[in-house]
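B., you asked whether I could sanity-check this one before it goes into the benchmark set. Here's the sequence:
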Amino acid sequence: MNKRYFPEFSPEVELEIEQEQKGIHEKYWQHLRQFRAPDPYDSIFVDSIAHPPLESLPIKEPRRLAQLLRSYAFELFEAEAKRYTHSEYLNLWLKDLSGQILKTIMDRLGQMRFLSYHASDEEIEAAVDEALRTAVNQHLYALEPVPGSRAKKKQAKASQAKSDSKEYEAQNPKMLSEARRGMKDTYFFKFPQAMIIDVCWAARQHRREWDRWIKGEIKNGSKPDRLFRSVLIGNKAPSEIRPEERPKEWK
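And here's what the prediction gave me:
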């Protein structure tokens, strides 16, 4: 494969990626089945719209479906992207991976025609595409210089990846906010019982810092940014990260 678009992995790492992505597909397949509804292409369903039966049709849930699809795309993308190293070709790798994931998910969703009861094909694809664009930008934003000559060399190579992206604007509040909201949505899907104040407690940051961070007003690499990211990209609930009880008056 052309290394300009595909980073080279050992057979062992390729197997790890394949197995992780398989687990993600299986997990979200089960979640998506919960949206089962009458097939909109079924003539019986069409008749039921014109002449509704006594029992009501399922509630349409386009927003919940979109959130689930964003999480699905984000996790599938991260299973491979998190193994990428700093490279002048990083932007190209990420964009190529994004295209592959979009095609894979849309092909799989084509087997679930009942999803179109909740959202159109265009809306479904837009949700997946949005998550993937956010994921790409998130990786580009993570390229922060660190002290040391070796780190500077890495940063010099990585800077090319930034400049290659037309979407990338360093520390752009709007784009920072989009990337961070993507992380937030993915985290709260995994831990639906958690609240924003719980994340703040786990990150040892007050709610006012969260509000500024989620709006993109706090720069990448700053202390609040690093602490919020450490919670949101992890696989632990807030109570596992900081088990001591939060005072009721703490905000």
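One thing to flag: The chain has eleven helices and no strands. Otherwise nothing jumped out at me.
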